[in-house]
Amino acid sequence: MVAVPAGSLVFAFFASGVVLLATGHDALSSYRRIFDAAFVARGALSDTLIAATPLAFTGLAAAAAFRMRLFNIGGEGQLYIGAITAAAAGLYLGGSGGPSAFVIAAMVAAGCAGGAAWALIPGVLRAFFKTNEIITSLMLNYVAGYLLTYLIFNSQSYWRETKGFNAAVFPTSKELPDSALWPAATVHVRGGIVLPLGAAFAVLAALLLWVLYSRTRFGFEAQVLGDSPRAARYAGMRTRRKILAVMAISGAVAGLGGASQDGDFRHTLDADPNGLQRQYYGYAGIVVAALGRYNPLAVVLVAFLVGGLQNAGNTLQGADFPSGLVGVMQGIILFSALGGELLVRYRVSLGRRAPAAAAA
Amino acid sequence: MNNSLLVVLLASGVAYGTPLLYAALGELLAERSGVLNLGVEGMMLIGAVMGFWTVQRLHAGTGISLAAAIGVAALAGALVAGIHAFLVITLRASQIVSGLALTIFAGAAGLSSYLGNDLGLADNPARHQFHAVFPESFQRWPVVGPILFGQNVLVYASWACVVAVWLYLSRTRPGLNVRAVGESPAAADAMGIDVTFYRYAHTLAGGAFAGVAGATFTLAITPQWVDGITGGAGWIAIALVIFAFWRPELCLVGAYFFGALQALAPQLQAREIHLGPTELWANSLPYLMTVVVLVLASASGARRRLGAPSSLGLPYVREER
User: Fold this and answer.
1) A237 CB burial (10 A radius; 0-12, 13-18, 19+)
2) Is the ipTM of this complex over 0.90?
């Protein structure tokens, strides 16, 4: 189970090393710097958690749907919508001076509901019209992105800051009130590691999804529907309902990721044009889910590692560090994981008529 | 008259639509053979960066430089597509995940950015670029001037490509074979058609077209290199193939329509026409229309008649025939 992902990592480091050497960079020192910036340096772990938390959410969202062979690649848009609805809840309830726990709970609920509603659009289309969910969920990512841009930059919406001199020159969204900011715990080692509340939610969501998929009838049926739709229908499983339920769960997890962006990190809906949209959390989440082989617990672990890689990429960005290297490495890791699947699915035998030859 | 909103929109629709058209034609070829490639954005960016690099580094005349740049862009796109082809055809990996991986690998924060940075391409305008072919006087003709005669050679070449792809798929033996491979690889295999070869060839051809599409950005539309210069055009191209029911001639119409919609919002701003939410609608329309078309196509049960290859996205495993 671990051999393929681990082997993929080793291969990816090797292959990216070839790219680095071919273009005249010192591969080993680049790797050392990445590792240092991701996990070792002062404050590195805190930053890695900031990068990993949204990836865990979008990764879990993708894993939840892909398990049933529902290819929801709309995590990106569902995260935006979750961020929009959660910000509305935070602004509205936080502004009226409610207790913080209540405001945060409302933001979580609103984020989940927003993401789920956005995911249900392709879900309903798939369930009732058999419309391919890959393309529809992808298209809705763009619509959600334009909606986010519109709310902050091209309209006088509820989310937009309209007071003050700066707001007239540089459009931005309203700051969330204090009671809508999510608390974080700090572990006092190596200058303090900040554990955001969202990271705890992500771990909780992973546990719940793991239980749902491996210990309940619901999860079993979803699995069967994914692996063999005909057998599932023959056994009398409710296909439509399950599609709707799984899409809603997937969207809710992505939407929660959006809520965590508001409450944990950004403290506003989006401060600069394309700030949230330039991160591609939704698409990276699919990579994370695939590397974790759609196992929720593995997804969280992979999110942490990929988050470290991304954090290193951001930190080291500059003239002396090859830009784009992190994306190249992520791509190669994923390619080799995909290729490695073959070794799991098939028995590779070397030589002719050698029945008990090398098996992987 | 030539400054009226409609004419400007149509003219820029053709200009902005051209990269969409090239990319969509390539994706159409791949999908007709049964290979879905979601890595168009990544392949386009690789074509964009390598085409631009050729123009900057090659010491030759304008014509030769540009021709070489298009060749290099096509080659680079095909090379990157080769990764996807190997993974999904030979290793039978998931086409969706592999395509997304390709975009992450090659895209805005990946190899294209790495190459652009490493080859030192940013901050300089292109040394050569594609200009309008016809003289100024032609371009001043009312209506048709800017739309038909104000374009560069890539636009006219794309029309030839549309005709070529249409003829290829509908009038030639290999073209019929491609369609057989996309519809029913098992039947095609039984007829003696090499399924693997056809799928490889058309996935690579799709990559080459995407590479040219990318070079259209760096050599014609905005002649410079910027990270992520294609700005999501690759994704629109994927939608466009569906929107056009997998038919090359409809790709042309769809590309210009989507191109004109892209030009709508900036044109409205430039004319200080503020329509409020209209801008949101104009931006979202291509995506929403694709969704609607998809729903209509699937709801009427007319998927096959509309042209979706039956085995699109499915690996062909001979042993499981």
Assistant:
1) middle
2) no
